[in-house]
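Here is the promised in-class demo. Please do not try to memorize the tokens; focus on the logic of going from shape to residues.
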């Protein structure tokens, strides 16, 4: 029976609620690693700290160095102390941001909210999709204030409070601007990265600021009608050169996470080659798709019917991926942002 890759329900799988990881493991690299051979579909069960056993000298890991903004704020309406929650989406001008808030009906244009004694916000306008445009007021840098009072914008399926904010950042995060973590990178420790370098495995960086659209469900039954979210990316000249050199020498380019994958494939699609560039991408990858840049992928386990499981299915083959997910459920792997990882080669 032929599979209709354009149908949303094609990418559904059963996931028991208890398989959704609520907290990260310690140390980071102790998470499990399901290794999937994209040619044969063979599966092997390992741990992330064994990653080096599957890589070769000359391979290149490409990582997204975007840093998550503590973008969730809890405050009150200045005139009557009604509670409000803000989630910052993107900067528009100096201390001016597009946000979503709840309860939204309390945030009419002109309303002022306060977040402790260091930050206030005035609602300027309602955006097309029901968000708000707000002007923040604070002493000094807004980012410094957010770092002090903001909460991490954890995905809606994580209900436990995060004890340590840094556990929702990769150890190599540096470019502030994401609304969600590039979670495949959460498994790396400085020690693991050092041992991979000693093994002759190199690393390069791209930046893609992950938007909340990454959690937006696909609502259309025909996925070709899905409106993909747009995210800003940068491919540095050094990374483009390292990828070209890796390819030339017969090494493999392994994307750490779907965000790194989308950056590389989106940049190639925009320019017809991989070069130093910056821009916005809304690339939507689903089967069948001819990958131009990556040879391997490290990724977490994704939500049923999400654009991310569609991307992974395009890379590793739909049947292989659905079998791997079924196996992961049976073997009690941990799923989603704080869950276990897959290595696809």
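The designed amino acids, position by position:
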């Amino acid at each position: 029976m032929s599979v209709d890759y354009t149908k949303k329900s094609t990418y559904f799988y059963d996931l028991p609620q208890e398989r959704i990881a609520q907290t990260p493991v310690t140390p980071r690299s102790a998470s499990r690693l399901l290794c999937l051979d994209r040619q044969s579909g063979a599966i092997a069960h390992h741990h992330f700290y064994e990653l080096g056993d599957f890589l070769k000298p000359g391979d290149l890991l490409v990582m997204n160095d975007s840093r998550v903004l503590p973008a969730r704020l809890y405050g009150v309406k200045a005139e009557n102390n009604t509670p409000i929650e803000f989630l910052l989406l993107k900067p528009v001008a100096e201390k001016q941001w597009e946000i979503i808030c709840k309860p939204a009906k309390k945030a009419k244009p002109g309303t002022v909210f306060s977040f402790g004694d260091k930050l206030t916000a005035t609602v300027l306008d309602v955006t097309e999709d029901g968000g708000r445009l707000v002007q923040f007021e604070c002493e000094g840098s807004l980012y410094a204030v957010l770092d002090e009072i903001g909460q991490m914008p954890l995905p809606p399926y994580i209900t436990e409070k995060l004890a340590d904010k840094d556990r929702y950042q990769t150890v190599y995060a540096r470019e502030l601007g994401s609304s969600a973590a590039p979670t495949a990178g959460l498994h790396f420790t400085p020690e693991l990265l050092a041992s991979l370098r000693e093994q002759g495995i190199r690393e390069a960086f791209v930046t893609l600021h992950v938007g909340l659209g990454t959690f937006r469900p696909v609502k259309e039954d025909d996925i070709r009608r899905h409106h993909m979210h747009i995210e800003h990316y940068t491919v540095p000249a050094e990374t483009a050169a390292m990828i070209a050199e890796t390819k030339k020498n017969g090494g493999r380019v392994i994307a750490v996470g779907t965000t790194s994958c989308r950056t590389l494939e989106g940049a190639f699609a925009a320019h017809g080659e991989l070069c130093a560039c910056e821009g916005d991408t809304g690339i939507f990858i689903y089967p069948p798709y001819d990958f131009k840049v990556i040879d391997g992928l490290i990724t977490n386990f994704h939500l049923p019917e999400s654009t991310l499981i569609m991307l992974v299915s395009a890379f590793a083959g739909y049947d292989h991926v659905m079998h791997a997910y079924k196996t992961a459920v049976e073997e009690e792997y941990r799923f989603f942002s704080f869950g276990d990882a897959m290595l696809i080669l």
